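Same chain as my last thread, 205 residues:
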Amino acid sequence: MVRSAAALLLGFSLVALPVVAQVPTTPPGISDVRRVTAGTYTVDPGHSQVTFTVNHLGFSTYRGFFGSPTGSMTIDPKAPAKAKVAIDIPMSGITTTVKELDEHLKAADFFDAAKYPTARFESTSVRVTGPKTAKIAGNLTVKGVTKPVVLDTVFVGAGTMMGKRTIGFDATTTVKRSDFGVSYGIPLVPDTVPLQISVAFEKAE
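reply #2:
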């Protein structure tokens, strides 16, 4: 009985070996700017999001996000200051931990997603501040109102994933929502809102 169990276990181990050998041991993306290749990339919606943070009535830090952004980036690693970025953010994609709040945020007294279905960031200049950092100035449009913002941007990694060249960045900025006509709940809910933009860009090999 013991011998049979041992033989069975050994058999399973031998069958599993080829599968285990195929599992990668390192991620495809590496934080090495030398892996960035020139070209025009598109946003990978499934691996990108815009997160916002607010203080919830003085009790807790509350977060939500906009999923499935789209857009593009043109970059040349030999001239990163000439990079161009445009990101479109679907207002219908707003998500929190409360479904009723999601619907309220889409309503007219917040983002009015039916009338203004998309927010947009479009870069106007890029200032390289370090080997993996830059300040990207541009225009943010929300509810039909356009205001200048600066994104503090960090290169995350580059490599090949699923046959596509991929580059990832994180960026942060802070906006006053009242500047864009989103004034509901002020001052109980703060006017100043930190944003974090995490985006993966990809292009065919």
